[in-house]
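Dear colleague,

Thank you for sharing your sequence with our group. We've completed the structure prediction you requested, and as agreed, I am returning the results in plain text so they can be pasted directly into your records. Please verify that the sequence below matches your submission; if there's any discrepancy, let me know and we will rerun it promptly.
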Amino acid sequence: MSRALVDQLVYLMDDAFENSRVHSLIVNLSTVTEDDWSWRPAEEGRSIAEIAMHVASAKQVYNSQAFGDKSIHWEQVRPMVQLHNATLADGIAWLREGHALLRNNLAALDDNGLMEQRGVHWGGTLDTRGILTIMLQHDIYHAGEINHLRSVIQGTDHWPGRRT
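Please find the predicted structure tokens below.
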């Protein structure tokens, strides 16, 4: 059985999560301080902690629904998203745990497994490739969100050539 597509998806997932030196989720968290972690831009805004915990939660939910026993739903993980006392190290550890679950389940497949229909949290099914694409894009989207919020907090949100 061929694994070329699975190997490429594993590579891309790892790159979006941690290996890209610029755009990955973990790299964008690497310059976040504990003070940055819990700071909110406004009363209704989300902190970096809440964004990261949301991403970690999504990894748990998607993994449970697609590869596990379907026992984890947003109702179980939503309280984790709302934790304000989770440290930066706690958040990164939970992100790594969720990433490892998805990555290992993907790495165990052959290319034919990418077309297999799997459960999704909103009901119904989606092919495995589609689920993993959502998760890859989810990491990149929230890495950018974290990058922007961190740069605003730290006063480094400047465009090249912009006059202050």
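Summary note from our side: Residues 29 and 146 are 7 Å apart (CA to CA).

Kind regards,
the structure core
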